[in-house]
Specification:
The chain is of the alpha+beta class. It contains 5 helices and 12 strands. It is globular and about 55 Å long. It starts with 10 loop residues before the first strand and ends in a 6-residue tail after the last strand.
Length: 264
């Protein structure tokens, strides 16, 4: 992996692993420092935020990584959203739709090009209404682990994922392969400054998937059937989802799952 990490810490590559999260936990227990990044070509037990969900990606087709994050990040409000914001900005920078050359000194994202990567609360990256990537944060006794995956080179997806997943290659429409190492470097550079983003909430809300639209919100455990129709309004200063139910009541949700429009 010929790139430099903005965290000035080891960057390790595995051809195959159970999951980058497992490898990062093991390395943290062995004393590897904060900022260490683990990247894999293939993981056979990658998992998502919800129990039972797996991250599926063909070998070498995605950026699959876990960062041993700074312990100070535990105190950051809206951590998974800040991370998603960093990853979305890195993707757009790499694709040339935005980036440092297209932003002013404050990092203003209003000058973004035609591509817009949205954030599906609380931890997914969306492009064109399809999932481009995801974030998983785990606080363990070994440390804070931040796992993330971004689809890069896929031209199609199998089965039910076909209508729900996207890759950078698909949304860019470019025949030139996306360089995974350059994307990793851009992601780490953006992640290194998330604690200093005073306007993170404003930036997240500009990208918030389904904002101003009504969708079904599952509020209970998976398969519990506890759900409601609500209009997505934004997020609060802690990163909680703000929504309005059918009776006009303001909801402040810390745990929920938003449905795709066709799943309502």
């Amino acid at each position: 992996m010929p790139f430099e990490s903005a965290f000035d810490a080891p960057a390790l590559h595995f051809e195959t692993t159970s999951s980058t999260m497992d490898e990062a936990r093991r390395l943290a227990a062995e004393g590897y420092p904060e900022g260490t990044i683990v990247i894999a070509d293939w993981q056979d037990s990658g998992r998502g935020r919800t129990t039972g969900r797996r991250w599926v990606a063909a070998r070498g087709s995605a950026l699959l990584a876990t960062l041993i994050a700074p312990a100070s990040w535990k105190a950051l409000p809206g951590l998974s959203l800040r991370i998603g914001l960093a990853l979305a900005s890195a993707c757009e920078e790499l694709l040339g739709e935005s980036g440092e050359e297209a932003e002013d000194a404050r990092g203003d994202e209003d000058r973004r090009g035609p591509l817009k990567i949205e954030l599906k609360w609380p931890n997914d990256l969306m492009a064109g209404g399809r999932k481009l990537g995801g974030v998983l944060c785990e606080s363990t006794r070994e440390g804070l682990l931040v796992g993330f995956g971004i689809n890069i080179g896929q031209s199609s997806f199998p089965g039910e994922l076909e209508a729900k997943a996207a890759s950078l290659a698909m949304i860019s429409g470019r025949p030139v392969p996306i360089d995974r190492d350059r994307l990793a470097e851009a992601c780490l550079r953006r992640l290194a400054i998330i604690a200093a983003l005073g306007d993170w909430r404003i930036k997240v809300e500009k990208r918030l998937w389904m904002r101003g639209r009504r969708t079904r919100v599952a509020t209970g455990l998976p398969d519990s059937g506890d759900s409601m129709e609500a209009t997505i309004l934004g997020i609060d200063e802690d990163g909680a989802l703000l929504a309005e139910d059918e009776a006009g009541r303001l909801l402040r949700l810390h745990s929920a799952e938003l449905s795709w429009p066709e799943e309502r």
